Amino acid sequence: MGRGKIEIKKIENSVHRQVTFCKRRGGLMKKAYELSVLCDAEVALIIFSSRGKLYELATSNKSMMSTLERYQRSSATGKQLNLYPGSSNEKLDLEVKFLRNQVEQLKATNRYLMGEELATMSLDELNELEAQLQKGINQVRAKKTDLMLEEIKALQNKEHILRMSNIMLQGKLDECTNCKDSRFHGFITTSSTSHAPAYTCGFNLNNQSLSSTIEM
């Protein structure tokens, strides 16, 4: 019994829609690659998801751009078109469209990183998101470690400077203390030497007076 015909219309359930998109996108890319290999054909495939995420496949040995340029040169109009038209307005329109697509992709990526709309993502996309988040966490931790090491090194340098300053101040304090002790010791020695003759003289005078008194 053959499979029933699927009605071609938008899938309302967001989860089912995302699952179908992932499966059919993979199948389409696989078929495009097989076509290029089996038939030696140059194939370019560009897909934007409903959330603005870009998927592309280019079988050219060069790049997607080379295939697009070849398409422009071989367009059915027979005109030699240019990817960047001479008209400034057309060029600006292309740039605006490109920037809008970039903004939508960044918004979608930001929503994923914030943990939003995860229900619509496939297992492969969740694994990819988890790997990206883990990589970001590792980079944040590495930067945090570097900053902490720099702060520790700066504190160690300050500690060394303070220690050296303390040693210098202690040395100056010791010099001042030794200088005061030397001056005080010299003052005592000088004072003792200057008073000794007066004492002896007084003693002699007293003895002389005493002797005179006794003789009388």
Automatic annotation (TrEMBL):
GO biological process: positive regulation of transcription by RNA polymerase II
Pfam annotation, one family: SRF-TF
Gene3D superfamilies for this protein: Transcription factor, MADS-box
Domain of life: Eukaryota
Coiled-coil portions: 89-146
UniProt protein name: Putative MADS domain transcription factor GGM10
Signal peptide interval: none
Limits of the MADS-box domain: 1-61
Compartment list: Nucleus
UniProtKB keywords: Coiled coil, DNA-binding, Nucleus, Transcription, Transcription regulation
Residue intervals of the K-box domain: 89-179
Single GO term (MF): RNA polymerase II transcription regulatory region sequence-specific DNA binding
A single cellular component GO annotation: nucleus
UniProt keyword Zinc present: no
Entry annotated with the keyword Nucleotide-binding: no
